[in-house]
Specification:
By secondary structure, the chain is α/β, with parallel strands linked by helices. It contains eleven helices and ten strands. The protein starts with 6 loop residues before the first strand and ends in an 8-residue tail after the last helix.
């Protein structure tokens, strides 16, 4: 990854942690930070971790959104290129071979909320606040919010968040299904450690296959999705995961996946 003062990548115990590190700007995403984030996700994938964590530095924000001072003077082709950059990063999180977790430790507005939506799991600190706030700027979500949010929460909830730019706290986000769990702010890091340790102990081939099949379901009919699932299921037979998992079950022992 190119040297960057705005994004850090740490790999330890088979877990890659990417931190957006602009706390003085509430971890907002300027072009430099987006490009560094894009490079960090690519480098993390090359390291073949068992889990990926995305979070923000400091006590106030996860990612407070995109760089409005940059966006305000863009013309249509420039805005298209900016949207493509954000989409590429969101897609790389969504398709990352290992499960990805958004550790939401504060404000998650606009593009920050969209990157959280692209992760497999979302864990929020009690002080987290979510919002697709683009309508306040005269635009709409441009990094996947109009597509991923309605797939995750009730249609009415998604429309209210996008059409009114409503902000919701972590408790409401959990109730609506936007996040999977809420923890005290000072317990977020330890909870993420627990989740990633559990994921690291899971069968790697099967985890990747499960994520791939779930993601594929959004672009398929039920019939096609079921056919795809059968292919993924059968393709795992003969892998080290399947051999170890079933042998451990038959012999009444805990599996020891590679």
């Amino acid at each position: 990854m190119p040297d960057s003062d705005t994004v850090t990548l740490d790999i330890a115990d088979e877990v890659a942690t990417i931190t957006v590190d602009r706390p003085e700007k509430l971890n907002s995403l300027n072009v430099e930070t987006l490009e560094a984030l894009q490079a960090a996700v690519a480098e993390a994938e090359d390291a073949d971790p068992r889990a990926l964590v995305l979070t923000g530095a400091g006590e106030e924000a996860f990612i407070a959104g995109a760089d409005i001072s940059y966006m305000k003077d863009l013309d249509t082709p420039e805005a298209q290129a900016y949207a493509e950059l954000g989409h590429d990063i969101a897609r790389s999180l969504e398709t990352f071979p290992a499960p990805s977790i958004a550790a939401v430790n504060g404000y998650a507005f606009g593009g920050g909320c969209e990157l959280a939506l692209a992760c497999d799991l979302r864990v929020a600190a009690e002080n987290a606040v979510f919002g697709q706030t683009e309508i306040d700027l005269g635009i709409v979500p441009g990094w996947g919010g109009t597509q991923r949010l309605p797939r995750l929460v009730d249609d009415e909830v998604a429309r209210r968040l996008i059409l009114f730019g409503e902000r919701i706290d972590a408790t409401d986000a959990r109730e609506y299904g936007l996040v999977g769990e809420v923890v005290a702010h000072d317990q977020l890091e330890s909870r993420i450690d627990e989740l990633t340790a559990d994921l690291a102990a899971q069968p790697q081939f099967a985890l990747a296959a499960a994520k791939e099949a779930i993601n594929a379901s959004y672009g398929m009919s039920l019939e096609d999705g079921l056919t795809y699932e059968k292919r993924v299921f059968s393709g795992l037979f003969g892998t080290p995961d399947q051999r170890e998992g079933m042998d451990a079950f038959v012999n009444k022992r805990d599996p020891d996946f590679e």
